[in-house]
Design goal:
The complex is a heterodimer of chains A (419) and B (449).
Chain A: H1 2-25, H2 30-48, H3 62-91, H4 97-124, H5 128-161, H6 175-180, H7 184-217, H8 222-230, H9 237-247, H10 261-268, H11 282-308, H12 312-320, H13 325-336, H14 338-354, H15 357-361, H16 365-368, H17 373-383, H18 387-418
Helix pairs in contact in A: 1-2, 1-3, 2-3, 2-4, 3-4, 4-5, 5-18, 7-8, 7-11, 7-14, 8-11, 9-11, 11-14, 12-13, 14-18, 17-18
Chain B: H1 3-30, H2 33-39, E1 53-58, H3 62-77, E2 83-88, H4 92-102, E3 107-110, H5 113-122, H6 128-131, H7 135-142, H8 144-148, E4 151-152, E5 155-156, E6 159-165, E7 168-171, H9 173-178, H10 187-199, H11 217-231, H12 233-240, H13 249-263, H14 272-275, E8 297-298, E9 321-324, E10 333-342, H15 347-356, H16 359-365, H17 388-402, E11 406-408, H18 410-413, H19 416-432, H20 437-447
Classes of the chains: A mainly alpha (419), B alpha/beta (449).
Amino acid sequence: MALLLTIYLCFWLGPALLTGWLAAERGRSPRLWFALGLLFGLFALLAVGLAPRTERPVDGGDFEKLFRAVVAVVVVVVLPLLVSWAFDFTKSRDANRLAIVAVAIALGVLGVFALFWVMDQIVDRLPRGWRETVRPYVFVGPAVAVLSVFLIYPVVNTILISFKDRRGDRWVGLDNYEFVFTDPSMLRSLRNTAMWIVVVPAVALVVGLLFATLADRLQRGESIAKSVIFLPMAISFVGAAVTFRLIYSYRPEGFGSNVGVLNAIWTALGNEPVAWLTQRPWNNLLLMVIMIWMQTGFAMVVLSSAIKAIPDEIIEAARIDGASEWQVFRHITVPSILPTITVVTTYMVINALKVFDIVFVMGAPENNGTEVVAERMLTWFFTRQNQGYGAAVAVVLFIAVIPVMIANVRRFRAEEAIR
Amino acid sequence: MSPNGDKEMTMRMRRLLIPLFAFALVAAACGDDDDAGGDGGDGGATGGSDTGRVVLLTAMEPEEVDAVQAVLDDMINSEVDYTAEVEAAGNFEEQLQIRAEGGTLDLAAVPQPGAVRQLAADGSIVALEDLGFDIDELEEIFGEYYLSLGEYEGKHYGMPTNINLKSMVWYPKDDFDAAGYEVPETWDELIALSDQIVADGGTPWCVGFESEGATGWPATDWMEDLVLRTAGVEVYDQWVNHEIPFDDPAIKTAAERFGEILFTDGYVLGGAAASADLAFGDAPGPMFQDPPGCWLHRQASFINAFFGNFAEGLEAGVDYDWFPLPPIDQEGTLFAGEFTVVGSNRPEVKDFLDRFIADDVQCAMGSDEASSRISPNTNVGPDCYANQILADASEVLIDALENDTGRFDASDMMPPEVNSQFWTGMIEYVRGGPSVLDKVLADIEAAWS
């Protein structure tokens, strides 16, 4: 028993100490590499088949035992060196980029493979009754851990930063929130965002529904008509904003002819050219038009498929009973596709809450009164480098999304209950 | 192993595959990050692998990189046993931060003094003193002021390696001469010239301040130039360091001078309010119409790169030229430039920087007609420049550095919040006219808190 324990310790702590020492030699973190070494050791133990199993005891001839011993030595001595070398390689400047990528991927994939193999082996050594209960958690665990790191940690950290000063050094209580709800520019952004989440989904939905209903009646060319309206969806927000910059473009008198489409139409009607993007409050609407232009196609496509899913019998029955087209639309089509309308609205409300690129590309928001919440967040966080203000705005935005999400989840549950 | 065991094994492998695959992707993407924490300990000062290369990280345009690299190949790489390379990074700020923290930074040409001091505070760059430079000698070469901008806690971190002039007034030379106008030497002459142009039925000034999210910066340059000229360098330094408030009478005086140009009837083409919506790159255009739509345009040295958009084959010194914005009560020259910082204390890096700032290399850099670099080395004379515009600008700049009348772009040295409010405030002023000036200055002052 004592001998076995010694072998265990040699195999397990040996590589850990070795890698830890190697790391210290090279000015790396010894603790991290000691931990990695423990993993190597575990690997070695399992590879050599020394760890006891409740099932499937190690059998096999001398050759297999020898083979296992060689594997164990390789794991303990060669693996740390190999991994260490691979880490160095991925950081070297002279190496071929592709080779670096290949090594990094190999390191990641094999590392994960090793991790899961080791965990699986450990689970195999648990008492029989426990095994299948524990295994799912062991496999889901890393994913949950990664999700926490990338989702929960940032949320918590943002909330903490929102109570600190501009560089995150000092606690300032609610000062940042006071700023959010008193600064004139911030208040304008709250008002504008409120307008965005009402106007954009409403208009896009109504126009999308109109197109979907009418396209449904087309004898032919329905797919072409729908494709044309859906196309803007494929353009990025920044791309669309740049396109509309040209449409709204303005040059003062004397600076050459106006190249903007809107001003071309406007002056053709006998008016003076106008700097569209600075006309308060209409410039806000001009910016919303961009998002409506992009989102209508989405609303139309989704609603159209919902309309097509309405059984013909219901509509025919209504018509036979003498319902007018409007009555069919009002009392059959709309109620039937209501769940789809809710989903589309939720999606567009969240998109409108997040809008930033359009506003940012179109001139100076603060001078033009076109601020929105997400734009304020980026401006304060990056342009003005005030982390506290930026984080407070982010938290407000985060809280604003929650009711929309809750409403959506509730509706989804209710729907499930009906089925 | 029993056949049964094999079968169990394959089944287990199959169960393993799905989460494994998903996790592998994630881990492959972020696996290398795990190590970064462990490696951070050795810092920038001693880091950097000992390769035979010295890399200068920059935010230069490709043409500029080619021009500088050609000089390095010709005058440095041919004589030493390492290779000096200029690298242009599209995401310069990010790359600088990553390399400085990772200890893989050799040298970088940083455009803001604030960034130099931040890197110094983080401990990721090496002081020029620690590299063995003699500061007195450097002050002799670059002037005390420029060198002092890269100072942090008594040590100097930023080596001036490029400079550009902001106090330039461009004019359409051929038409200007034909109309019999003279280049003004004083502010009064400038105003008299403007009045003369109005009397002749023309419009003197073209101004444009629109620049997307940074709209207003060309107006802050105007303000800085006027603070220098009305209040002088001492007040300018106090203003930059917030030793006087932003709504100090001295600053207000400068803003009123700016208003004199903006709001005098007939001075600004299209009117001052419209200039806030005019892209700064489009603003000089009317100078090249026939007859010129405007005659004067104040903008930094980079603007002649835009002139090609307005007419074909414009020639410097023939179709257009420039004169320094004239002094008012004080002399002053506004400039911006780059600071080379050192991230790795290796002998070849020091040797490179020594050679890079030397008179002959700096002079050779101006020999390319396409180069837009001006040397801050006061020993590099105007004869070094193939381009007459740069030669003239260099003369003004060297004179300013030697006589301590040159000052660095103020808004770039103020905190980002103030800078941003400065842009916004200037646009409000341009649109709102003299009546909103007090509020505008008070708002910018409030951003300092």
